[in-house]
Design goal:
GO terms for molecular function: isomerase activity. It comes from Trichococcus shcherbakoviae subsp. psychrophilus. This is Sugar phosphate isomerase/epimerase. Keywords: Isomerase. It is a single chain. The chain is of the alpha/beta class and about 280 residues long. The chain has a single domain, classed as TIM Barrel. It is about 40% helix and about 15% strand. The protein has an 8-stranded parallel barrel, surrounded by 4 helices. A two-stranded antiparallel ribbon has the order 8-9. Helix 3 crosses helix 4. It starts with a strand and ends with a helix.
Length: about 280
Amino acid sequence: MLNITVRGHDLSGVASVKDLAEHTKKQGVHNLQLALGMSFPDMPSGAANLNPGMGAAIKRELANEDVQVGILSCYINMIHPDLEIREQLLQKFESYLRHARYFGASMVASETGCVLPEIQYTEDNFSDEAFADMVGVIRRLVKAGEEAGMLVGIEPGLNHPLYSLERVEQLLTAVQSDYLGIIFDPSNLITNEDYQHQVAMVERAFERFGDKIVAVHLKDFKVEDDQIIPVNLGEGLIDYAAIARIIAKHKPLSYVVLEETKDDHIGRALQLSLASEAKP
């Protein structure tokens, strides 16, 4: 079984926490990955704005519709080249770690960023220097997570220094903590040249560091002009059934986030999930 989760900002027409709760329930889903600034752009959600009352109020409103925050998003460029900006971003993430429990979240999530100011693909991210810089930052954030009793969920991707299964293993060796987990998105680690091997890659990931995988993103895709383009789950090339079986085998009831699947397509994806689980 899988614990299907949606990103709050994949639901349109949401102007309030009440709207978010109702739209999530309408799709038959009970778990959210919540990015405050993306779901509620008019609500201040910086490092100094989070507070226990905010978390408790959002948690209470969502619970009215049997919805909860599983993952609190704080996606930042944690290796931003401007050290003053970087410090502000890291302090924001640390604030999210301190306050996540009031929202009911089990982890705070981020990717690892980019050596450039804007996150994008560059082979400069693949250097040992960029990796070492990233490790130092994650070590700091994990320490803050340990102090707050909150998991730090790190998502690898080709646009980041954490760009391969090998680099993930190196990170986990360098930062050994029960409070560091991996949010695994197989579509973030494939290209137009190797997407046919997606299932084998997922199997390798669970074999090599499955004990550290704390959530999975399922992002369907198509290949267009040699690029991986996200689409709603069930409309692309991801081998959903095979990957779902691997997740269920290794991490039953794990959070599985339907990233880039939007609005009423979420309900259809949930039916796809249920149908997959019903097959022997």
